[in-house]
Amino acid sequence: MQSAVRERFGGATVTDAGEAGHARFRRPYWRSIQISGRRVKKIALFADVQNLYYTVRQAHGCHFNYSALWADVSRRGTIVEAYAYAIERGDPRQQQFQQILRKLGFTVKLKPYIQRSDGSAKGDWDVGITIDVLDAAARVDEVVLASGDGDFDLLLERVRAGGAEATAYGVPGLTAQSLIRAATRYVPVEGDLLLRG
């Protein structure tokens, strides 16, 4: 299979064409950054705080290490966008944690926790994460999603179809197999990604 790459600068696209010249994907030419003549991968990072909290606690009885996540992702390129999605309950400890996330470099997005009259609760960020990922995927080389939620499998497939890599971080045994299969790369949440003690 021969691959033809055509670049058109001035605001256009890079096209990678496969067999019979059919374009497999189109992406903005400005996705990657050049530093000292070296191509640096641009990465957008998305953290599903609720999913990480509950799956790490269930599997390991500890907390997720967001600082280690940032360091691990940074080894592959430059994080140009980072979002952490959380629920706002007005708890001072949660607010302190959200401030730590901001200092790391995350933009923290909050949704109010809603307790229904029947006792059930609502506080789901799935649609918000999906919209933000799709928006960012056109601007970066790689999307990193820290979540084990299988609802995001089609999202990662769409990211890959658009030409970006899709990396999923999730807790082994608590990450949906469909999400793992949809990702370009799966990174198990273990070792340094756990905050013990």
From TrEMBL:
Residue ranges of every copy of the NYN domain listed in the record: 42-189
CDD domains attached to this UniProt entry: PIN_LabA
GO MF term list: RNA nuclease activity
Entries under PANTHER family matching the protein: SLR0650 PROTEIN, SLR0755 PROTEIN
Protein name: NYN domain-containing protein
Species, as recorded: Stutzerimonas stutzeri (strain A1501)
Lineage, opening ranks: Bacteria, Pseudomonadati, Pseudomonadota, Gammaproteobacteria, Pseudomonadales
